[in-house]
Every structure is written in C-alpha cells, then in structure tokens.
Design brief:
Structural class: alpha+beta
Helix content: 40-55%
Number of strands: 24
Strand order of the largest sheet: 2-1-6-5-4-3
Distance between the termini: 77 Å
C-alpha cells in the first residue's frame, strides 16, 4: 500500500495529473518528496520483513536516506530558506497555494525522520534502552499521523492564518498511520521483541497501554475541537449565507422598484411627450421649457438629475447633478437599460426609451440616489471587525468594487489569474453561488459566501478566518497543553503503578467519561437545538438551545415522548414513521438536511423550524439525533420581502403583478366552473388638481382613502388593486345576476365618491370613471390582458362621455380555430 501510494504520487507529479497527487479536488496534495519517502518506507518494511541479511542491510541504508533527506527539509523550515532539495520545478505546473512549492510540511518531514531512525536502530537493539527507544519512536510516528489527520480537519491555516502548505496532506497522514502500524507489526515479529528478551508480557501491556493512552487522549481531545469547530463552521456558514441571501433580495427589490417607479413617472407626468417634442427640434427653446420644468419638479422630489439623449446617444438636455464620468457603472437586469453608478453614493440610472411611430427616437434617463444601497448596506461591523461586503464587476484582469465598510471609495482588485486560486468574487461573477474558505484579495484566509446579483455584478460577504475562529483558536491554545500534560501524567501512572487488567479497565472508563463530557460540552455550546430520542420516541437528551427554543426545562423534557414538541396533526404520522424506520424501512427524513417543519412551544404556539435527523446505532438499537434551528425571524423577513414585491406600499393593496396573477386565476376558475366574473377599471377624476392644490402628501392621503372606500364596496372574496398612479382595478367573481350586480356595485362606487375627502382639515372632491368588462366562462377561453384592456377602454369611454359614471361591455373570447382543409 505504501509503495503504491508513493509511486502514484511520484508519477502524478511527473505526468502532471492532479488526481494522482490529491484525493479530491481542493485538498492539499502530497508533494513529490513525500511520495519518494513513502516508496522508501514501503521498501524498507519489505526488507526488514525478510530473513535475508542483505535486504535487512538495505533497510538500514534506506533509513539513512530518510534521515538525511527529511533532516535537510527540517533545516529549510528552521532557516526559512530553500537549499535546493524541494524540486520546486516539478511542482510549478500546479498551483495549490503552497508558498514554497515542493516542500514537505514540518510534521511530515519529522514523521519520516523518526521512521528513518527506527530503520537505523532496528538491527542494533542490544539493550533495553534501545528497545524502548524503537517502540517510543514508532508510537511517535503513529501520534504524528493521527494528529496530522485531525490537524487537517482542524484547518490550522484558518485558525492561525498560516500558509496552506503548513498542513500535512490528508492522504499523507493516512500513509504515516499505515507506516506506524507496519512498523509495529514488523517489529513485533522481530527476534528481540518476540522472545521477551527485554520485555515481559506484563511490561509490554503496560508500555502499549501507556502509549495508546497518550495517543488516544491527545487525538480525542483534538477530535473534540474538530467536532466543536464543525458545529461552529455550520453556524458561521449559515449566518454568512443568510446575510448574502438577505442582501441579494434587498438589492434586487430596491433596484427593481426604483427603476419601475422612474419608468412610470416618465409616462404619468407627460415627460415622454415633452421629450419627443424636444427631440423633434433640439434647438427649440420653447419646447425645452416644459421639459426642464418637469425635470426640476422631479429633482425637488429627491431625484439627482434628468437627461435627454438622442437615439445615437448624444446628450441633448441635462438637468440636475448628473455625473459626467462615474467611477463605477454596471447595467442592471430590471427589464430596461438601467445602470448602477457610484457618484458620492449609490445611484440607479433608469433609461426610458422613447418611441415615435414604432421607431426609437431617443431616451430619457433619470438618476436617483438609493441610500438603502449605500454605506449602511455594506456595514457588517456587528458580525465582526474584519467582516466585509463587496459588490464588484469584472474589468479585464481587475475587479472594480463599490465602497464598503473597509474602503471609502471605489477600489480595484487585481485577479490572481489561476484556476485553483480564484477569488470568491470571481466565482460569483461566473454565475456561481455558495460558501468557501479561501484567500481573498489581501491574501488573507477568509470564509466567504458569494453569489451573482445580476449578470456581471457579484456579491461577496466574508470574514477573516482568523477572527471568525478566534474562540476555537483560544480554546485550542489553552486546552492543548492541558490535554498533553494530562496524557503524559496518565501514561506515567499507568506504566509504573497499575497492572495490565486494571490499566485496561481504567483506560476504557476514562475514554468513555471524556467522550461523554466532550459530547455534552459540544451539545451545550452549540447554538442550534440538539435532541436525541430512542427507538420508542422517548427524549434521551436535550441541550440548552433546544430547551430554550421550546420553552421547557431540561427535566421537563427528558423521558417525555418527542411528539410533545410537535402539533397534534403530525403526531400519528410521526409515530408510524418511527416504527417503520425501527423495523428497517428506509425514510426520506433521515439524513436529509434542513427539513422545514412546525414545532410546538410549551405555551401552545406553533413556530417554524429547520430539522436534520440522523440515526446512530447503539447497542443493537437506533438512537436518533435531531439538529434544529428556529427560523421564525427568517420566515418573517422572507414574508415581508415577498409582500413588498406584491403589494403597493402606500395603500396596502395588491400591485399590478399580483393583480394580473389573481386575474388569471379568476378567469381560469370562471372557465372551469362556467361562472361569470367582471373586471372594473377605476380612474380618479381630477386627481391632478388634488396634487397641485395639496401637494403629493395630500395626493397620497386621497389614494389611501380611495383604497379604503373601494375595498368597502366589494366582498372579501373579490380583489381591489392599485394598478399605477391613480388607477385602480377590481375583480368581481361568482356573479349570479350578472349585469344587475355589476351595475349596482358600480353605482355604489360612484355614489360613495360623492362624499368629499378630508385633506388637512379641508374638503376635496374626487369622482371616479369606471370601465367594466363582464366575462362568462361558458363563452370560451379569454386572454386576461384583453379583459384588462377592455375595461380600460370602457373607462376612457366614460371619461369621454363626461366622467363620474361607468360603462359596461361583455368580453369577446377567442374564436375557435376553423378547419379549412
């Protein structure tokens, strides 16, 4: 196995095949010299396993080569300078983050040095001291392999900010463990060991027990840190991913809303008509006056500036504070030619195309500062001092990024240009998303969540690994010496005072106690709730987080059935499912991460949780471990963001998108049930006069009161929506006496609006013009856009005929396709 492992690695470097030098893409590879050392170690074990004296002498020579080669490597680490034995040229084709290509990790070199000394001393064991030295060296090799394996999982480069090359490769650690086991098996068959010349059976047991205790205790202690770190990594990743997800939703909703609102303003204020007049004759100063007046009114409302461009992009008119050359700009995927700019703040530029007789003639651009995306958007100081959020675009071999909490102005980052060393922002700009531990643009180890906001614009939320893992690092620094001291003292006591039987019993009990303490510590320190149940569903343990989550004391939960923590409707299904799993049937619940279910608090309140369940075999039965997280806050945020995307923020009514969705559903229900429905298009008469007289605040007050009056005239099953500006729509479903019902409701609405509105203590009169389209599901399929268009046409007919009334028509469904063959 060792010869195969070393040979594969050596050939992998020579043939330049990454899969042959690393177990899995992303793991630290084994260097060329380590492969050579495994070839030598495997060959040396074969030589010492033979009775041929020449082969055994070859083993001694191999030991000398190992000591010489790895001793020089340790010297390189000591003086921090290459002396030419790393074969760096063999490693230049593959960048894996090693700042010293080809150099073995210090613990790897030390392991092979000790193996070399075992080979040198093996044939010269003439006294008990040398025999003890050989056995101790073998155990040290095993300890180095185990700690190297656990150390890899601890990721010291993340904990301490070391270079990635400081880690022993995971398959190197496995090979060293195999080497230690091969050494022990081979030396146990040697004459001096098997004959009992230096060791009785009792002394062997005491020595082995002491050595095993030393290694297992140290490894178990480090394993406890690995488990604690794993739980912490999960919590950290979830926190960064949640931040990334929240900022992404915020960014997309804000930019979309700003762009949509600017597009509507151009149409509603008549700016598009004024712009077309000006485009027809750019030198017409009379035509420029109303355009400039509208632009200044928008600026008074908080917009940065307005710009008129010809179809060729020539700037014909600019009003306000428009950046001539912004330090940052990138297009936005908002359905029009919008841009994200930086000019003393985040600016969204919405470009509204102007079309005359079906041909583009130019465009109107509106700049609006968006404080929600400014410094407060990137402020992550509550996460940590090194936490940073970056929004960047790619520019050739550079990244151009918006200011954030760490950089006060737009800044550039040079790309490393290597596939294995890609920055998280590069992955985001490539369309990827996820979380990764890597080096950032400062060459610092970070934990980063990344994703694409829009094509060409990436978002990264990251934190320095050294800060993120500070608590784990401090615990390891303070705990490792204690573990080592306790391990050494325990070994000495066992070796010198206890007989083999008592030693084994005490060692077993101590390991069990340590394991239980470690598990309890991990459970109690975890931020997520952890509950274990037996095969009958009885709760065996619950950590503090779980008790707090459900509102119970620990003594109230232990021994109770877990169904106590779930709603009554789920209890029977849970009991049946548990019985099937215990009987050996597969379950989709086991091992599936983050299943969303409902939990039941002690108070009787239901709340959403994410649940992951795993089964652990124990004494022939299964112990089920549940890891859960309360997601009430997250769900509330998601629902709030969803509402912002579907409801008008001023009136609380459904917006156009939600209205069209409900209209399509209503039409489908009417078609399937052969029922009758109607669509009303309600437009305010004289609303512009309200805005001119009372200002926009007065206009907003009227719109809110209009929404309340319209909602009061229809049933709860009907829909009232604000389509845009002063336009409202109503869906009436399941009509019986169709035309009479609709007329009655329309008349009721017209009559209701005879009552004046109260604005700032004054009366203001606003009437409504209504257009109605009736659709009978028995008449065939209908295009919902035709329904809305028909209602709009009827409303304009009402306005033409004098306003403050309604007009009604019936929908004309699509004609069936005629067979003309």
């Amino acid at each position: 196995m060792l010869i195969l492992l070393g040979g594969t690695t050596v050939l992998g470097w020579l043939l330049q095949v990454p899969a042959m030098v690393e177990i899995k893409h992303g793991l630290v590879p084994m260097v060329f010299n380590a492969g050579i050392c495994f070839l030598l170690t495997g060959t040396g074990l074969v030589c010492y396993g033979s009775d041929n004296r020449k082969l055994q002498n070859t083993g001694i020579a191999i030991g000398g080569v190992l000591v010489g080669l790895t001793g020089l490597t340790l010297l390189e680490h000591l003086i921090d300078r290459s002396i030419g034995i790393d074969l760096a040229t063999v490693h230049t084709w593959y960048d894996y983050g090693n700042t010293r290509p080809g150099r073995m990790a210090p613990n790897t070199a030390l392991s092979f040095t000790l193996i070399g000394w075992v080979f040198l001393l093996w044939r010269r064991v003439e006294a008990r001291a040398k025999a003890i030295a050989v056995i101790l060296l073998t155990f040290c090799v095993l300890a180095l392999g185990l700690t190297g394996l656990v150390g890899y999982l601890l990721a010291p480069d993340l904990l301490f900010g070391w270079a990635r090359s400081g880690r022993m490769a995971i398959h190197t650690a496995s090979g060293i463990i195999l080497s230690a086991m091969g050494l022990y098996v081979t030396l146990s068959n040697s004459r001096w060991y098997a004959s009992g010349q230096f060791f009785t059976e009792d002394s062997k047991i005491r020595l082995l027990s002491a050595g095993i205790l030393l290694i297992v205790t140290a490894t178990s202690g480090l394993t406890g840190f690995v488990l604690l770190q794993g739980s912490y990594e999960h919590s950290l990743s979830s926190r960064l991913e949640a931040l990334l997800r929240d900022r992404t939703v915020l960014f997309r909703s804000v930019t979309s809303e700003v762009s949509h609102h600017a597009t509507q303003i151009v149409a509603l204020t008549g700016m598009d008509m004024q712009a077309k007049r000006l485009l027809a004759d750019p030198l017409d100063k009379v035509a420029a006056i109303p355009f400039d007046a509208l632009a200044r009114r928008l600026i008074d409302q908080g917009y940065r500036g307005v710009m008129l461009e010809s179809v060729r992009g020539t700037r014909l008119r600019m009003v306000g504070d428009l950046p001539s050359a912004p330090s940052f700009s990138t297009p936005l995927a908002t359905g029009n030619a919008s841009e994200l700019l930086w000019d003393r703040g985040v600016v969204v530029r919405t470009r509204v195309a102007l079309v005359q007789d079906g041909k583009p003639v130019g465009s109107v651009s509106i700049d609006q500062v968006v404080p929600a995306l400014d410094a407060s958007f990137a402020n992550l100081e509550r996460i940590g001092k090194t936490a940073e959020l970056a929004l960047c675009v790619g520019r050739d071999s550079m990244l151009l990024c918006l200011p954030n909490g760490k950089n006060a102005s737009v800044f550039q980052v040079k790309l490393p240009g290597m596939q294995k060393s890609r920055l998280p922002m590069e992955l985001a700009l490539a369309g990827g998303s996820g979380i990764v531990g890597t080096l950032d643009y400062r060459n610092e180890n970070v934990i980063a969540a990344y994703g694409e906001l829009v094509p060409g614009l990436g978002l990264v939320v990251k934190q320095d690994a050294k800060e993120a893992y500070a608590s784990i690092r401090e615990a390891l620094i303070s705990g490792a010496p204690i573990i080592l001291i306790v391990s050494v003292l325990g070994s000495i006591m066992l070796y010198s005072q206890l007989n083999p039987l008592i030693t084994r019993m005490w060692n077993s009990e101590r390991r069990a106690d340590d394991s239980a303490i470690e598990m309890r510590t991990i459970m109690e320190a975890a931020g997520d709730g952890i509950i274990t149940i037996d095969h009958l569903g009885s709760i065996q343990s619950a950590n503090v987080a779980a008790c707090s989550m459900f509102g119970y004391g620990k003594e109230e939960l232990i021994g109770q059935n877990v169904t106590r923590l779930m709603p009554a409707k789920n209890r029977h299904a849970h009991s049946e499912g548990l019985a099937r799993v215990v009987a050996g049937s597969p379950s989709t619940m086991l091992g599936t991460p983050n299943i969303q279910v409902e939990g039941l608090k002690k108070t009787g309140h239901l709340f959403p949780i994410e649940l992951t369940i795993n089964a652990v075999p124990l004494s022939g039965k299964s112990l089920f471990v549940g890891l859960m997280r309360d997601i009430t806050v997250r769900k509330a945020i998601e629902e709030k963001l969803s509402r912002l995307a579907q409801f008008d923020t001023l009136t609380g009514l459904p917006n156009r998108a939600l209205f069209m969705d409900r209209l399509a559903s209503a039409a489908l229900r009417a078609r399937r049930a052969s029922a009758t429905m109607a669509v009303m298009f309600v437009d305010l008469d004289g609303f512009k006069l309200i805005n001119d007289s009372f200002g926009h605040q007065g206009g907003d007050s009227v719109l809110v009161q209009v929404a309340e009056r319209l909602s009061s005239t229809v049933r709860k099953t009907d829909t009232v929506a604000r389509l845009a500006g002063d336009e409202f729509t109503v869906i009436l479903e399941s009509l019986t006496n169709t035309e009479e019902d609709v007329k009655m409701i329309a008349q009721k609405i017209n009559k209701l609006f005879q009552t004046p509105f109260r604005i700032a203590g004054q009366d203001a009169r606003v009437t409504v013009s209504i257009g109605v389209v009736i659709y009978d599901g028995r008449d065939g399929d209908i295009d919902v856009n035709d329904l809305l268009r028909g209602a709009d046409e009827q409303m304009y007919l009402t306005k033409t005929n004098g306003k403050n009334a309604f007009n009604l028509t019936r929908a004309e469904p699509r004609l069936p396709v005629q067979d003309i063959t």
